[in-house]
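Thread: quick sanity check before group meeting

JM: Hey all, I'm pulling together slides for Thursday and realized we never actually wrote out the predicted structure for the chain we discussed last week. Dropping the sequence here so it's in one place. If anyone has concerns about the input, flag it before I start.
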Amino acid sequence: MKYLLSLCAVLLITVSSAAFALDLQVAKDKGLVGETPSGYLAAPSDKASAEVNALIQDINAQRKVKYIEIAAKVGKSLDIVEQLAGQKAIEKTEAGRLVQLADGSWVKK
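JM (edit): ok, ran it. Output follows.
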């Protein structure tokens, strides 16, 4: 069951990232967004542009829909699926990109 949940989370991250590959990749490359332990994207700065915030909101909304579907399929809570997806997304984040630590601080991986 844990393997299935992990696989679903990895696939979800891949699919949600592919939908906005160019924009999301550019935003990550520029350090405008990063992965968080909650399974969602966030801006490391309070001064993110409206365009960056719109990208974050759009991708996070799509991720939440997928997380809800996965949670229902595997019989786990949404919170558990989100946490697992966040862990997997941070693990898969490329070197030089930002990730948020559990304490809320941001670091380059």
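AS: nice. Residues 2-108 form one domain. The radius of gyration is 13 Å.
JM: adding both to the slides.
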